[in-house]
Amino acid sequence: METRLFVLQRMSAMFLAPLVIVHLVLILYAVRGGLTADEILARTQGSIGWTLFYGVFVLAASVHAPIGVRNVLREWTSWRGHSLDVAMLVLATALMASGLRAVWAVVA
Amino acid sequence: MGGGGVNRARTDRRHAGFAAFVIHRLSGVMLALFLPLHFLALGLALDGARALDAFLTFAELPWVKVSEWGLVVLLTVHLTFGLRILALEFLPWRGVRKRWIGWGAGVAVAAGLLFVVSVR
Amino acid sequence: MSNESNHLQVSIWRGKSEGRLVAYEVPARANQTVLDVVTWVQRHREPSLAYRFACRVGMCGSCAMTVNGRPRWTCRTHVRKVAEDGCLIVEPLRNLPRIKDLVCDMTPFFEKWQRAGGRFKGNAGRGDPIPRLDPSSPQRRAADAAIECINCAVCYSACDTVAWNPDYLGPAALNRAWTLVNDTRHVEQGRILDTIGEAGGCHDCHTHGSCVEYCPVELNPTASIAGLKRRTVRRLFATGDA
Q1: Which chain A residues are closer than 8 Å to C242 by Cβ?
Q2: What would the pLDDT profile of B25-73 be if each residue is shown by its tens digit?
Q3: Residue C79 has what DSSP assignment?
Q4: Structural fold of domain C7-104
Q5: Do the Cβ atoms of C93 and B9 come within 8 Å?
Q6: Which of B57, C23, C101, C228 is most solvent-facing, going by the fewest CB within 10 Å?
Q7: Where are the domains of chain C?
Q8: What CATH code would you report for C107-239?
Q9: What percent of chain C has pLDDT over 90?
């Protein structure tokens, strides 16, 4: 399992890298002159491109974050074993669900 | 087996690779904690643009803006230090690429500065 | 050095599983190593001080200890380079059980070495022709880059992941496994990949690089471990086996 988690972690990282760069550039552009809901939604609503962009972003982050958090907990707390793995799966699902809901909220 | 027991000694961890690891890990943890809040905030748009605007108004508070700056820096540094790890693991070995740490931190500081001048 | 006296203030860890630092005043000399200092204490102040050394010329790795927080070969550590204001703190290596004073039990270190598959196994016999190995082949070069390890446990002591994760095989064992994975005569490479691909194996390495920082022979366990990571990925995609 460790090899599979490693592969998922590194592959999700490779997907996230370009998405994060675009996201950072967008943040720096969008905050100029203040941020309003209309501004954000005008960009994202009905856009297939942003739907795909943020959809992939959420999926990749939902895989990447829990695997990372699992490492931290295993090394810096006494929590390890099956219950930790289940908790991380729950975290991944929760992130995916709330993330895809957020994507829907801004593109629909 | 021998005496067992205490096997710690004081440890000097002052080298760049370790500092990069700590920053990478802590930034990751903080981003992971932030992510659910980010998703919930964006989800407010389900109740219409006005609901999201109410949140964005709250986000104009100075301490929130400072936190946003912090998140931009944390995200950038996690990205740059993460790229170094991918390079160390998957590209031909060229040493521990210590210079990438300096550059990575520099890019994160630059991103933070760009945020400060852009946000108004 | 701001301390003008011709004495060093040396704190040495004494005890078994429990213990404390004991302070000694040691005459400072123009050229002395930390091993010289420990030896002076044992000969003139504390006959019962236990410590290991052998060659005393930087070849065997027996004298490895923690000096001012850093794992080093004490025979190759000049006092002048590490003593901050004429003060030295000498402790046993980290991450290993303590036997007495500066002496650690190396058993767990060697157990992990074996568990990672560090024992060579070939299938040629006495009557078989000598296998031809091209020293310039990528595999042989990879093995040669890592082969000079003399099991001094400095990297094992330097590694925080070893400290935080008791299952972790550690840099030396994994470095050795990498040399055998690249040895075309070795017949148990599959077994190595099985072991280093599960919990405690190469994926527990987070590339702190402390092993590279401190290895007295200038090896790169981090590079070897990265090589093992790539191998496990390749095997997963090629065979579906983790």
Answers
A1: 1-4
A2: 999 999 999 999 999 999 999 998 999 999 999 999 999 999 999 999 9
A3: H
A4: Ubiquitin-like (UB roll) (3.10.20)
A5: yes
A6: C23
A7: 7-104, 107-239
A8: 1.10.1060.10
A9: 90
